[in-house]
Structures are given as structure tokens and as C-alpha cells.
Specification:
Layout lengths: L1 E4 L2 H6 L20 E6 L5 E5 L12 H13 L8 E3 L2 H7 L15 E3 H11 L2 H12 L2 H14 L22 H14 L1 H4 L6 E4 L2 E4 L11 E9 L3 E10 L2 E10 L2 H18 E7 L6 E6 L5 E5 L4 E6 L6 E8 L2 E2 L7 E9 L2 E10 L8 H13 L5
Parallel strand pairs: 12-16
Antiparallel strand pairs: 1-15, 2-3, 2-10, 4-5, 6-7, 8-9, 9-10, 11-14, 12-13, 13-18, 15-17, 17-18
Helix pairs in contact: 2-6, 2-7, 3-5, 4-5, 5-6
Length: about 375
Amino acid sequence: MKFFRPSTGLMTLGLLLLSLVPVSAQLFETKAAQAFMIDAETGTVLFSKDADRLIPPASLAKLMTMEVVFDAIKSGRMTLDDTFVVSENAWRKGGAPSGTSTMFAKLKSTIRLEDLIQGVTVQAANDGCIVIAEGMAGSEANFAAQMTERARQIGLQKSTFVNSTGLPADGQQTSVRELALLALHIWRNYPDLYRYYGQKDFSWNKISQRNRNPLLAMDIGADGLAVGASEQSGFGIVGSVSHNGTRMIAAMSGLANDRERAEEARKLLDWGVRSFEKTEIFAKDEVVGEAQVFGGSKSGVALKANGPVEIFLPIANRDKLTARIVYDGPVAAPVEEGQPVGTLRVWIGDTLSQETPLFAAESIGVGSLPQRALDAAKELAVGWLR
């Protein structure tokens, strides 16, 4: 049986209005059909709109292409000085003859991996992606299978990739939530390589192109990541902004054109960095709440997190926050200190903002025979209250 409890510890802080039902309201409105924004440091979800709907990734699939490359570099399996040859397939499908985003790589030329990375991150080069895929995996299909496998390894359960470029293909899908989490993973795990996303321009084959990310031209602290567009999913973007020590990452899709994409992304990220502040809502070892115990020497067990609980709270509209403790119960005695028991869930408006695992703060032994008999009688007579 699933139990829901208000978090009494939060009440004592005077920070949150607690209820068992999240408030049905968003603190921000966007024209995007799908949108998702997260604070990079704490993992707090600050905005979510239809974030789990599966959509074609378009050129945003290149984020996964780069993750596979970055992982190979970090693990020592590849270096920035490794070279790859431009095949006729890569040249025709992604190069100048293709009419798509390209770095204009010459047929049968040899290119360093670092230059290919810049072609992909700055110019969204389809030829660069295919050259990398063929060089690393023998074929683009093999590389796409590696992309999907790697996506599962880093926790992306719904994203599936069929090619390295994001060009239209049956079965290729992702969500704005997973795109934002992918960007967060890249920023956290590859700081020395993430910097390529903030590069303003890149020249190859005597042709200079500016970064396709419109956020980089705005004075909002943007330093990445990518844009994409398809007939089915509209115009999309994954962007990251750092401002006064705060980093926000947002993903959006379903916008009407490139101008609307740039403006809606700017507004969402700017709202994020200006409207929230980090707050410690529970100190290390502080009791968060209590879970009911069946057949124990006590009727309840205190719960705490493994360390302090920090969250980004709205500077205004703090009455839009709700929280509750969720656990499967009642918890059967005996209970060991440190035993996983439940989860603290916090909402901002109607967005599930953060989930923190909770553990038993104490050990509870098995109760006496009369205590256990009384608990059993309660269970048989009326069940446990939720």
C-alpha cells in the first residue's frame, strides 16, 4: 500500500505550504509545446511542460553523438589528435551535396577528431557526425546502436537513436526531459570538452560559420548547447546559462520558427536564473518526517536524508510549493537504522521538482506480543490510514 504524508519538518521551517495535492499552476508560460528546465547543481526541476512526450530529436541527436565521443576520449580510447577519412557516404549524405548542415569536409580528406568535434558542436555538421560514426564503429548504424546503448547506461530510458545526425528516420525518438538530462550529464562529466559548445565560430575548408545556437549572441550568460528542427517536432533547442553562480539547463520543442525558438528559450532561462534561489530545507541528519511501523516496538520511525536537502525555491510565489513523503507501508518491523524507507517529493506549482530518498533515522525492534496483536487487529478491522 502506498502511503502519503505531509512533511512535518518542512512546516517548522516556515518555507513551504504543504498539502497532499500539488497546486495545479505553472509559474511560467511558454509557447513551446514541450519544455523542461533543471538547476544543474541541485537537480531541482524548475519547469516542466509535457516533458516526457516522445518526439523526433532532429539535430539535437548530435548531443548523444558527442557524448559517445567524449566518453571515448575521457576513457582514453580516443584522443583529439586521432584522424578520420571522409567517405563518399559521409560526403553525399552530410556534406556539400546534401544541402543540410555541413562543415564542407572534402571527399577522401583526413580530419582530426578535434576539428570534427568543432564542426559538430559549432556548425551542427552532418558530415562530421557521419565521419565520426564510420570511423569509430565501422558504420553509422553500428554507431547509432552504441548511442542507444550508451543512453541507457547514463539513465536515458526512452531515447532511441537510428543515426548520428538526427536526420529523419523511423524509430528515432527522445523527450525534452531526457535531452536536458543529457546536456546536464555532458556538462558535469566532460568540463574540458563541454567548452566547444560555447565556441562562437569555426572555419573549415576556408569557410567560416557562426555557432547555430542563438543564445550565444545574447547577453544572458549562455555557453551551449544545440538547436534542431524537423517537420514533425517543430523548432527545438537545448540551452545552458550560467549567471551569478547558478546554472540552468533547458530543453524546448514544438516552436514555430527560429525566431520564436530563440525568444522563448531566452525568456525561460532568464526567468530561471532570476526567479529562484538555493535554500537548504533540511540540514544533515535532520528528521524530515515519520513513517508508520507495523508490529514494532514503536508505531513510527523517524526519516532523514543522506545529507542536507537543498532545493531552488521561487523568490516569489513560495506558496506554490508543496511536499509530501511517499513510502510503501506500513513498514514492517524490525527496521534497521539507515534502511531505505521512502521518498520526499517537492512540487513547484504542478511540476514535480525534486525527489530525495529517505532512510530510517533509528532502529525499531519487533514489538511485544500484545503490540503486534493490536496492530494486526487494526489492519484487519479498518486498514491503515493513508
